[in-house]
Task: inverse folding
């Protein structure tokens, strides 16, 4: 169907809404919405299947605005199509408490698939969505039942394509031949510093071709609706490659400042806004004005989307008849219910069991639960043999013609691409049928910091298997030994950092991580062997903290995590030889411990005696749970790990020495209050 | 000159030393040294100019082993060429206290240019070295005096090239046409997970061509010494593009496991080590055995390097005669001396001056010192107008034919490439004549975490101008508002995080950052205006912490940083209205404050009254300086910043309320000790 005046009116309505919303907020980015409105109209009107009344319809096409600063484009569309986003919401763009924050947040706004704005994340999330779709489709589709076959459409700007995270994800997407991914690159020659020729002169399409993508160039993104439509059709027809369409546009199209960075990040001046409206045939005295025809045009598409969902539901009913098991699996996973009794597979240890590295304990957990939990989609950033993230019989997630796996595979070879891996996992989580986990060294989770904080902000259930978690990795040395990493991750809200000390704690960490559907987890795991603790049980450790060794006559409490807990237990004997009694507590997860009752917490870290913390990282933050801190506020060293532990005095003797200093130092303070007692509570 | 048997003996000596050292350590990576020994021999013997007796010779060619795990390759070369690295040092490979740690650390080992191992960093550092070389050459070279004309040679593996940081740096290097950069890509088809076809099937050379690089492929990296030599000659002849040479090699060449990942990351088995030696004509009963001829061969090259330096010194003497000012500038910068009296340019404020955003204060500092400190090489990750990192009259560092700058330019348009920017700054610092600084939003310093920790570990003087430092950025919302970032950076050893509260604090931050030649700094700067404080002076703030408002009858000390200090000062009045007296301290830099005398620190945060900290970030770590903490242990919000501050109660009333709760809560503890008093000191 040819494009009509009404199509253009709709397009210009999007532009004018972006002008009005940024003007009302006196803040925001009108340029991208004005330049991309035609492309968005084509994608949403001609290609996307979606139901505004059910934004979570499983087989919907996904749309990701990777250049999230242009979010008024997406908000305008969501409103016009009838999502639960009113014109009032648009009027409250960028205001406290609105559903229209300055960058799109998936957990806030219906119809937003992933949280974008931090550049490079959205397009990398989209690779994850495409992976999840391909994996689910290959798993659940059956002859006659092309049940899961959606596409993911992405808008991406120059900024996103300069980011390394996007390069990593794009390279992997090409390798994986993700034909369900279509990226439209807003080639407007402008970034914040001005013309892209100041820093970005590479040949983007040639680069993506090198990655194995299908590439096209549509030279007129301002008027050439037909050209773009044709290009997307071609892109859809290419089934074994992701597609990128370079769309040359003018940023801020219609503004007096169009084509300059002046229109990128601030509202138009009032007279410019006025002339934009006049130019596009709108009444400049009206604001947030949408004609009924435009609502009508978009409602038709919304209705078609609702009908498509109804049709899909009918197909799903038939599928249930023929493939009852698969259908109930889809529903179970969609509703984030774990299979009944799955947790009975978690390994349980007794204190007489041998010492095992916690990365190895993690491998055992995965081996035990992997078949029961088909939603687990694993992987590693090229450290499979070190992270121990794979299991016996695992099939690689690979393009079928690679002959080394297929799309039903549940193990992803991410390559040495930690940041891309993190962003891809967020996308996998966003698709809705998987729980992604993946491995790297703890120190290199930092490479993915940008994605990790978005996991937490967007409430993605993503699990990092972060091995080689300290100076205990030994010879690889300071470049690989985390010092600040754990403080960093503990400071991220809504992130559960676990550092299990033994087998039961490791099982507990997985239990909580797998049942926390709106929280990412990082499991810090040792390279070296750790003994099984006396009082450790899954139930104890699930609380995030518990008493490993109790003594009602203790003069000091020693609190620790992971590989140091066992050494603290040994320090008790050293102290006992000098007639000093001590308690030991293990605190494998602060975030979870914090959520326990104050009574419980005080039973672990009580009043009355001073508390010493012991952990081979920066001490930053440990003051929250202890009166004195023994840690490592410097970089580590290269050598056999036992030598390094000795060098830094993380030995029973070194701990005992500091425990005695702690007792002595606190003897004349009355009362000694647990640091858990606070004058006021924090706002949440 | 054709390659002789002695050349091959030398090459095989490198291989065998790598085998012996990894066997002795029972740890390490023999594969890369064995595969790359021929290439290293060609580069060091035929191309590099260097003087082992003076590893810091300014115009030396630089060598960067980006795949740092292969460091035995480099250690072996350094030893054989006569650097201060003995055969005993090789025998102590990967041992505590040795000069041969598991990954090369520039500050530990003579001849190591940059610390590598974390993948992607080295090659990105090399882009920085190349930038610094081009900038210094354009600045100081004169007709007849091609004084600074060195090349940077890089070895890089598959892993490095998969990392986004390397993609960012490579794209910028192509844009900048860095003809002095030659990268040799070890195409051995192996990463830790096995064959590269599991995750890395892109066309690397096509990608680099898209970036604007000159590309070549040498198909026989095992025997084809002449081919590689020719390719490097061609690469050197290409003056307006960086070069990458894909060198196809066999990892672990000579081992029974050659060509597999089995030889990547662990020592050879004893019988394999034995057959390697036999195969290469060595006595398998000997270890760390180097023939005098091999030492002799390499000594000739070392002697040529020493002669080249002598020749350069003579040229420099002549240069001094003709260009005395330039010559003394080179010396001054090489010796890291700042020009006398430079600090007199730092702006000074009085408390009656108007309120100014600290990003704007930073702009003023830069404007005042930029001409006095030509070693400053600035830039921004495409946020120049927001970070305010540029100055009037700045020339862009751009390739001359771009017509938008030239190589004398001192302002780098990094593009939206934060991680690349961080790694490039490390390289600029490593070259030795510049102090790099660059801007981005504080939240996106996290994207560069991998490079930032290496700045600290390698003791690079690098300055981050990190604006939009909190919820005070307002409407951009939670995706852009740092919460955990400052805790992360404060936990990094040898990093100075500054959060100035006003103009004098901002000047102090720059003063300390510019005079700390072995420490990176991050300056956290506000988007919103901040009042000038009563008791703030550069001298006070230089101590990292001081008293802003003293009161000998205070019932509470309030300690804060940056934009919250002014609000705390206002809270005094709110408290006074209720008859409560309070002190206020500002703590703009913890790392610097920690280095003051205990007496001084206790004068700021004394015993006797409880201390409340106030900062709009995660409270993590503030327990170190305070009894109670008011912070933001959740993500922020999108809206005008004043609304957000109000929402989270960072107002005089909100602070006063918590100050009263603090006083009340601590009234029955005796004595109230300053948290600065500790039972024992940390090991450093
Ligand atoms: Ca753009
Ligand atoms: Ca390789």
Result:
């Amino acid at each position: 169907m040819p494009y009509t005046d009404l199509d253009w009116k709709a397009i210009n309505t999007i532009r004018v809404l972006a002008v009005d919303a940024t003007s009302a907020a006196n803040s925001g980015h009108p340029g991208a919405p004005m330049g991309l409105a035609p492309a968005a109209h084509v994608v949403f009107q001609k290609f996307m299947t979606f139901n505004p009344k059910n934004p979570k319809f499983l087989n919907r096409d996904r749309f990701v605005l990777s250049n999230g600063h242009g979010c008024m484009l997406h908000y305008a569309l969501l409103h016009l199509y009838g999502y639960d986003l009113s014109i009032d919401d648009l009027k409250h763009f960028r205001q406290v408490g609105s559903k229209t924050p300055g960058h799109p947040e998936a957990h806030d706004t219906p119809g937003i698939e992933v949280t974008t704005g931090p550049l490079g994340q959205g397009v990398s999330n989209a690779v994850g969505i495409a992976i999840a779709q391909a994996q689910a489709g290959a798993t659940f589709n059956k002859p006659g039942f092309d049940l899961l076959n959606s596409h993911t459409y992405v808008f991406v700007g120059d900024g996103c394509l300069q980011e390394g995270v996007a390069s990593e994800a794009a390279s992997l997407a090409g390798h994986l031949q993700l034909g369900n991914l279509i990226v439209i690159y807003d080639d407007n020659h402008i970034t914040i510093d001005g013309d892209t020729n100041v820093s970005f002169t590479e040949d983007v399409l040639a680069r993506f071709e090198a990655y194995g993508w299908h590439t096209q160039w549509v030279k007129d993104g301002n008027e050439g609706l037909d050209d773009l439509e044709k290009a997307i059709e071609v892109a859809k027809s290419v089934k074994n490659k992701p597609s990128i369409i370079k769309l040359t546009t003018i940023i801020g199209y219609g503004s007096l400042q169009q084509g300059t960075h002046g229109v990128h990040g601030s509202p138009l001046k009032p007279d410019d806004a006025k002339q934009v409206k006049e130019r596009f045939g709108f009444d400049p005295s009206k604001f947030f004005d949408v004609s009924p025809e435009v609502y009508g045009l978009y409602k038709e598409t919304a209705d078609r989307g609702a009908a498509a969902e109804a049709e899909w539901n009918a197909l799903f009913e038939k599928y249930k008849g023929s493939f009852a098991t698969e259908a109930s699996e889809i529903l179970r996973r969609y509703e984030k219910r774990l299979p009944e009794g799955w947790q009975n597979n978690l390994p349980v240890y007794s204190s007489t069991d041998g010492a095992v590295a916690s990365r190895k304990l993690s491998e055992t957990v995965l081996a035990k639960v992997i078949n029961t939990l088909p939603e687990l989609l694993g992987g590693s950033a090229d450290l499979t043999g070190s992270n121990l993230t794979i299991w016996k019989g695992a099939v690689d997630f690979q393009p079928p013609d690679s002959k080394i796996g297929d799309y039903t595979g549940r193990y992803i070879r991410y390559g040495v691409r930690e940041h891309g891996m993190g962003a891809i996992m967020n996308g996998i989580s966003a698709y809705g049928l998987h729980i992604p986990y993946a491995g790297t060294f703890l120190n290199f989770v930092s490479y993915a910091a940008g994605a990790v904080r978005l996991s937490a902000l967007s409430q993605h259930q993503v699990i990092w298997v972060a091995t080689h978690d300290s100076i205990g990795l030994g010879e690889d040395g300071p470049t690989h030994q985390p010092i600040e990493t754990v403080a960093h991750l503990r400071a991220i809200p809504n992130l559960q950092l676990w550092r299990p000390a033994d087998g039961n704690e490791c099982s507990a960490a997985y239990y909580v991580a797998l049942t926390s559907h709106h929280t990412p987890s990082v499991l810090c795991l040792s390279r070296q062997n750790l003994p099984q603790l006396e009082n450790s049980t899954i139930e104890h450790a699930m609380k995030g903290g518990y008493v490993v060794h109790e003594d009602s006559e203790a003069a000091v409490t020693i609190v620790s995590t992971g590989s140091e807990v066992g050494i603290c237990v040994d320090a008790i004997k050293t102290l006992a030889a000098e007639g000093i009694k001590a308690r030991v507590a293990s605190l494998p997860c602060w975030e979870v411990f914090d959520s326990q009752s104050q009574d419980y917490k005080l039973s672990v870290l009580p009043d009355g005696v001073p508390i010493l913390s012991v952990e081979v990282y920066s001490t930053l933050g440990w003051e929250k749970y202890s009166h004195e801190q023994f840690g490592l506020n410097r970089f580590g060293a290269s050598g056999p790990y036992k030598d390094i532990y000795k060098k830094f005095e993380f030995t029973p003797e070194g701990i005992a020495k500091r425990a005695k200093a702690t007792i002595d130092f606190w003897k004349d303070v009355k009362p000694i209050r647990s640091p858990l007692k606070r004058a006021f509570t924090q706002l949440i």
